[in-house]
TrEMBL record:
One of its GO terms (biological process) is positive regulation of DNA-templated transcription. GO terms for cellular component: cytosol; protein-DNA complex. The keyword DNA-binding applies. Its main location: cytoplasm. Transmembrane segments: none annotated. Residues 128-227 bind DNA. The modification 4-aspartylphosphate is found at residue 52. PANTHER family: KDP OPERON TRANSCRIPTIONAL REGULATORY PROTEIN KDPE, REGULATOR OF RPOS. Residues 3-116 form the Response regulatory domain. It comes from Peterkaempfera bronchialis. InterPro entries: CheY-like_superfamily, OmpR/PhoB-type_DNA-bd, Sig_transdc_resp-reg_receiver, WalR-like, WH-like_DNA-bd_sf. Member of the two-component regulatory system KdpD/KdpE involved in the regulation of the kdp operon. Upon phosphorylation by KdpD, functions as a transcription regulator by direct binding to promoter regions of target genes to positively regulate their expression. The keyword Isomerase does not apply. This is Transcriptional regulatory protein KdpE.
Length: 227
């Protein structure tokens, strides 16, 4: 069973999510503040986290950073904050998706399913299962990235984006294709997602993120991975 951790201080939202998720076969834990969320995450090891940003004891972005210190669990932000800056801040902190309140339950459940799929292991094809560059190594079968002898922690979304680019090494991958493959058909116009996540990949993997050698932008078209 997929285990979901719901973190929100609004009892009616928690109740609605718990009922809907359990009705669809998910196991659900719930926390009403950031400290409780971090404790439950350690104790219960959820497969996905649905997180409100406006918590009574700490900002949700701090919870995201706390989780990202040790786990790659997919994190879906569920918040009434709707500004682009706040969305980008949450994604920069390590969230995988952002849903604004009020929300449709069907849409949230679809995004949750997509987040879980992105986190599932992908079998390697055997050929070029390990891709080596002068800066880092990508093991597609093991879903691991190594740079300078140390493993680099990527979120599930960062990994999925990297995997699509690496499997198409040397070829231009359009913005629309990347958005559809990584986030789903409903996200084909959300180019700000690509901007945020490409910046994160460059910060983690490029020797000089401001002058990338491996993750190349083709303005107005898409991105290309070069070894």
């Amino acid at each position: 069973m997929t285990r979901v951790l719901v973190v929100d201080d609004e009892p009616q939202i928690v109740r609605a999510l718990v009922i809907n998720l359990r009705a669809r076969g998910y196991e659900v834990d719930a926390a009403h503040d950031g400290a409780g969320a971090l404790e439950l995450a350690v104790a219960r090891h959820p497969d996905v986290v649905v997180l409100d940003l406006g918590l009574p004891d700490m900002d949700g972005a701090e919870v995201i950073k706390g989780l990202r210190g040790w786990t790659r669990v997919p994190i879906i932000v569920l918040s009434a904050r709707q500004s682009s800056d706040e969305k980008v801040e949450a994604l920069d902190a390590g969230a995988d998706d952002y849903v604004t309140k009020p929300f449709g339950m069907d849409e949230l459940l679809a995004r949750l399913r997509a987040a879980v799929r992105r986190a599932e292991p992908v079998a390697g094809s055997g050929e070029d299962a390990v891709v080596v560059t002068d800066s880092f190594t990508v093991d597609l079968a093991a879903k691991r990235v190594n740079r300078g002898g140390a493993d680099i922690r990527l979120t599930p979304t960062e990994w999925h984006l990297l995997e699509v680019l690496v499997r198409n090494a040397g070829r231009l991958v359009s913005q629309k294709q990347l958005l559809q493959e990584v986030w789903g058909p409903a996200y084909r116009t959300e180019t700000n997602y690509l901007r945020v996540y490409m910046a994160q990949l460059r910060r983690k993997l490029e020797a000089d993120p401001s002058r990338p050698r491996h993750f190349i932008t083709e303005p107005g078209m898409g991105y290309r991975f070069e070894r």
